């Protein structure tokens, strides 16, 4: 049963505790509001201001688990706070651990400060949970896929278009890496896991994956330097730094170019193109 008063008070106090710079928003010169404005939270949660405002005013329908997940991410809630939010709204909290898609506040704070850098947060199955604007400019919006296609590795073996962004000379290695990585996750998570289900789908759909899977190769790690072929700026040589959140099995991937190189200059051009598209 929903606790409307408790839910409204909790949302209001969490909103007022956040500052614009905490979530990657500009402060502006005429700000008088304590913490974030309701319209700013609604923007972060990908919902209408009216819908969010009604929750703070103890009105409106009972929010769905999907809405609560969006609010928890938008307000940068910890896992304990997320679970409290779900209970206030009359729902059981989602599972924690490797299967959770709740991003830790610390990882979100780092991502919010990387707005001018290609970066993304992904699950252990390569499902993109959040991207910076420059991340979208580099690889396209990869958060909108549904079902098995949310996984980068699944798309790699089932959608030829997913390979176009990568230099052809890297394709063979990336195929080996995705197959090897999935096998390790299946072993770690067990035969009833989402990883095992993904492997079953790929075994049925991709001859290349079957061949690599049957080779039982383990330990093929991503290269630090990645080579992209962007449709607007051309070849990019980017260094990928990986920050792991062991509690959630999520990774923050940050892509940078060496200053003074062609890739660095092209990344600056891409930032201009990305800002034009976002506006």
From TrEMBL:
Q: What is this protein called?
A: DNA binding protein with helix-turn-helix domain
Q: What is the lineage of its organism?
A: Bacteria, Bacillati, Actinomycetota, Actinomycetes, Pseudonocardiales
Checking SMART domains in the record gives: HTH_XRE (SM00530)
Pfam families reported for this sequence? HTH_31, MLTR_LBD
Q: Which PANTHER family is this protein grouped with?
A: BLL4672 PROTEIN, BLL4672 PROTEIN-RELATED
Cite the GO molecular-function annotations of the record: DNA binding
* Organism, as annotated: Actinoalloteichus hymeniacidonis
Concerning InterPro entries, the annotation shows: Cro/C1-type_HTH, Lambda_DNA-bd_dom_sf, MLTR_LBD
Residues forming the HTH cro/C1-type domain are: 34-82
Q: Which residues cross the membrane?
A: none
